[in-house]
Amino acid sequence: MEKILVVEDEKNIRELIKFNLENSGYQVETAADGKEAMDKLSGEIDLVVLDLMLPEIDGMEVCRRMRGSEELRQIPIIMLTAKGEEVERILGLEMGADDYMTKPFSPRELVARIKAIFRRLKEFKAGSEQLKDEIIEAGKLKLDISRHEVIYGEEKVVLTPKEFELLRYLVINQGRVLSRDLLLEKIWGYEYAGDTRTVDVHIRRLRKKIKADYIATVRGVGYKFVKME
């Protein structure tokens, strides 16, 4: 049974999320502030639902600390934001959140997003097991599937699970133009009409970390991987 940590300072919302997740078969821990969240975080947590505006330590800082921790950086994060917090939403994705939802939101939609993340993780692990001895090379870039490691030149590039999955999909489809909607479906596991900034921000993070122009933007369509060396 997957274990989810819900970090939300508003008790009614926290309890509503907990109720819906437990009804869907998940084990749920809760925290009312960022400090309590950090105390409860461990490698036993499979996913975090993280409110942006929190007492003690805000959600952005919790996200930053998780992504900087060897033990916690692999845990998926869904960030909750208020309707008007667009800049903060983008910053949350830049910090390494896998996805976000804007309040008010449907608990059913949140559960669907979480199920999609876990489904994609299982599919990705199964695919990685089949390719466990495979190393994908493209120019100076090397992806070690079994270790979930990326090497650029001689330097190790630290990626979140979602960034690694996205890069892997781009590399194995190199030269092919991939739409944002397709990437949402294949990497995030759901169809999402409209706002595709989640994809754009993750692409921007990959470009910044790899420090090479492997990923080309196809205006009005999406992205493609182009081996530059």
Which characteristics define this entry?
229 residues; alpha/beta; Rossmann fold; Arc Repressor Mutant, subunit A; five-stranded parallel beta sheet; four-stranded antiparallel beta sheet; 8 helices; 12 strands; globular
In short:
It is built from eight helices and twelve strands. With 229 residues, it is α/β, with parallel strands linked by helices. The mean pLDDT is 86.
Account of the 3D structure:
The chain folds into two domains: 3-118, 3-Layer(aba) Sandwich (Rossmann fold), CATH 3.40.50.2300; 132-225, Winged helix-like DNA-binding domain superfamily/Winged helix DNA-binding domain (Arc Repressor Mutant, subunit A, Orthogonal Bundle). Helices cover 43% and strands 21% of the residues. It has eight helices and twelve strands. It has a five-stranded parallel beta sheet with strand order 2-1-3-4-5, with helices on both faces. Strands 6-7-8-9 form a four-stranded antiparallel beta sheet, covered by helices on one side. A three-stranded antiparallel beta sheet has the order 10-12-11. Helix 1 (11-23) packs across helix 5 (107-130).
